[in-house]
Amino acid sequence: MDLEQAFRSAQGAIRACANPVIGVDISSMPRRAIADIVEWLASQNDVSADVHFLYCPGEFATSALAARRSGPLSAAPISKFFAGSLRSPSIPIGLVLGLGLEPYRALGVIEFLEPARVWLFAGRSGDARFEAAAWDMHHSLIDATDSENLYQYDIRSLSDTYQAVESLSFSVGLSYRLILAPSGPKLFSLACLLVGSSRDDSRPAVWRVGNSEMMMPMEVEEAGDVAASVVHFDAAVSTIPGRSVESLG
C-alpha cells in the first residue's frame, strides 16, 4: 500500500470516529514520508484529530555508522508544500541548521546557500557520546557562531523543540527568508515540518539535505526507550491549520 492509499483508508476510518486518535511511528520512516504525512494532516485531512507521534532514539554506535555513509550532497525543499512563502530575493537568507553526525553536511549546505545568518541546533540526549561526537565534528562551525545563535534541544521533547523553532521563526521571519535544514535526530525534522506546515505569509521553507543517490536502508539499533508526543491538528478547512504540541515523555 502506498501513502496515497493509506491516506484514503485513514480518512475513512477517522471520519467514523467521534474523537479520532492517530498513531505515527517516525523512528524508521524516511523524512520525505514524514513530510507527506504532516502535509496531509495539515492540509487535506478534514477531521480534527490528536496525532501521537512515537520516536525511538537510535543507539550511538549504529547511528554513527549509518551517518558516516558518504555520497554526493543534495539540498532542496523537501516538497512543494514545504517550499516556504514566496518572498523578494532582496530579503537575505537565514538558515536554521540541525547538527547531526553526518560529516561535511552542515558546511556543505552553508556553502551552497551562502546565508546572511545561521542558527545551529544541536541535539541533547542521555548518551553523552552523541553530543561529544557532534560537537567534535562541527567544532569549527560552532566556534564561529555567536552563542545567541546556538541552541540545544532535547531529542525526546517534541514540544520544547517545536516551541524553540517556532519562536525563532516568528521573531526573524520578516527579516529573513528562513530555511530550516534539519539533520540529525528525526524529532528535530518533525518539529521543523510542523513549523513549516503553517500557511503564514512569512513561513519558512523546510529543506532535505542529504545524499543525492538512493541508498539501501541501514539497520540502526534502538536505545531502548520511546518518546511520545501528541499534536492536535484542526480540520483542514482553512488556509491556516491550527495545532498544539505536547510531549508525553
How is this structure best described in words?
There is one protein chain. With 249 residues, this protein is α/β, with parallel strands linked by helices. It has one domain. The protein has 8 helices and 10 strands. A 6-stranded mixed sheet has the order 3-8-7-4-5-6, sandwiched between helices. The protein has a 4-stranded mixed sheet with strand order 1-2-9-10, covered by helices on one side. Strand 1, helix 2 and strand 2 form a beta-alpha-beta unit. Helix 7 crosses helix 8. The longest helix is centred in the middle third of the chain and has 15 residues. It is globular and about 55 Å long.
Q: pLDDT under 50 segments (min length 5)? A: none
First-to-last CA distance? 31 Å
Structural class: alpha/beta
Helix/strand order, N-terminal first: HEHEHEEHEHHEHEHEEE
How much of the polypeptide forms β-strand, as a percent range? 15-25%
What is the strand tally?
10
Please tell me how large the radius of gyration is: 18 Å
**Separate helix tally:** 8
Determine the mean pLDDT. Answer: 87
Strand order of the largest sheet: 3-8-7-4-5-6
Helical content (DSSP H or I, runs of 4+): 25-40%
Largest sheet: 6 strands, mixed
How many individual domains?
A: 1
What coarse outline follows from CA principal-axis ratios? Answer: globular
